[in-house]
C-alpha cells in the first residue's frame, strides 16, 4: 500500500496525522486558565474538513473541488482563529496562541499543498 502512494497522498496523510497530534498540544495560553488544548477549543471540528481529501485519497478518486475547498477553508479558519486568540485587556496580553495552534496551521497549509499536488499530478498522469 505504501508503494502506491504519491507525494500528494503522503502530504495529505502527514497533514492529517500532524493535525490530530496537534489537538493534544496547548493551542492558547489564557491568563486565568493556563494552557488550553485543541480539544478544549473544539479543534476536532476542523478535522471534519480534513476528511474530504483523506477519503478521496483512500478511495483512489481524484481530489476534486470539494477536497480543495475544504482544505482551503480549514487553513483559512485556523489562520483567522489564531489571529482571534490574541487578545489584550488594558494593554496587558490576556491570551495568545501557543505551539499547538501553530502546528495546526502548518498542517492545514500542508494539506492544501498536498491536495494541489494531487490534483496536478492526476491531471498530468491522466490517460486519454
TrEMBL record:
<feature type="transmembrane region" description="Helical">
    <location>
        <begin position="66"/>
        <end position="83"/>
    </location>
</feature>
<keyword id="KW-1133">Transmembrane helix</keyword>
<feature type="transmembrane region" description="Helical">
    <location>
        <begin position="95"/>
        <end position="117"/>
    </location>
</feature>
<protein>
    <submittedName>
        <fullName>Uncharacterized protein</fullName>
    </submittedName>
</protein>
<feature type="transmembrane region" description="Helical">
    <location>
        <begin position="12"/>
        <end position="30"/>
    </location>
</feature>
<keyword id="KW-0812">Transmembrane</keyword>
<feature type="transmembrane region" description="Helical">
    <location>
        <begin position="42"/>
        <end position="59"/>
    </location>
</feature>
<keyword id="KW-0472">Membrane</keyword>
Amino acid at each position: 500500500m505504501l508503494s502506491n502512494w504519491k507525494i500528494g497522498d503522503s502530504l495529505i496523510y502527514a497533514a492529517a496525522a500532524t493535525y490530530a497530534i496537534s489537538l493534544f498540544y496547548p493551542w492558547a495560553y489564557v491568563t486565568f486558565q493556563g494552557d488550553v488544548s485543541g480539544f478544549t477549543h473544539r479543534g476536532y471540528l476542523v478535522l471534519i474538513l480534513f476528511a474530504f481529501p483523506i477519503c478521496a485519497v483512500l478511495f483512489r478518486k481524484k481530489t476534486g473541488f470539494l477536497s480543495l475547498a475544504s482544505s482551503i477553508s480549514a487553513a483559512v479558519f485556523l489562520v483567522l482563529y489564531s489571529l482571534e486568540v490574541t487578545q489584550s485587556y488594558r494593554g496587558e496580553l490576556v491570551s495568545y496562541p501557543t505551539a499547538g495552534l501553530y502546528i495546526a496551521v502548518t498542517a492545514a497549509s500542508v494539506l492544501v499543498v498536498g491536495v494541489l499536488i494531487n490534483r496536478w499530478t492526476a491531471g498530468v498522469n491522466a490517460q486519454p
